[in-house]
Specification:
Chain lengths: 82, 82
């Protein structure tokens, strides 16, 4: 069993209104040291190894369903599940 | 300048309907190897060091605004920003 962690972030050139809103709230709360807030997604899943290669599977799933590659980037890590 | 990465996940005991929906879609698409899909948030931000300690700041921000500690866990990493 493999555990896969996928990090999905907005591409740098894309505005992040959710991040801006959070940053505004943090400033209002007195955390003026904070800047460049960007918000993405973090997915964890398990893959039961089959004849298919885990890397190929993860890339396919990311590109077909999990991310919007026009506006988002992703990276992932595969580890042995306990 | 410090770069902080914050990972927010639902506590294990909390149901994740968004994760279940994504898992259902992946199964419908033929990715039957996948299980235990959980979806969380991934935040990146920069902190301009002040007299306040970065760890204290991050924990305060997470507990006051960024996470709902009743249903979510968080962990974070601090690195030197380029």
């Amino acid at each position: 069993m493999k555990k896969v962690k996928i990090y999905v972030t907005l591409r740098e050139s894309i505005l992040d209104p959710q991040g801006s809103a959070v940053q505004g709230s943090l400033h209002n709360m007195g955390y003026d040291e904070v800047s460049e807030v960007r918000i993405g997604k973090f997915l964890e899943l398990q893959i039961d190894p089959s004849e298919r290669d885990v890397d190929t599977l993860v890339k396919e799933m990311c590109e077909k369903l999990l991310t919007n590659t026009v506006i988002e980037d992703y990276r992932y890590e595969v580890e042995e599940a306990n």
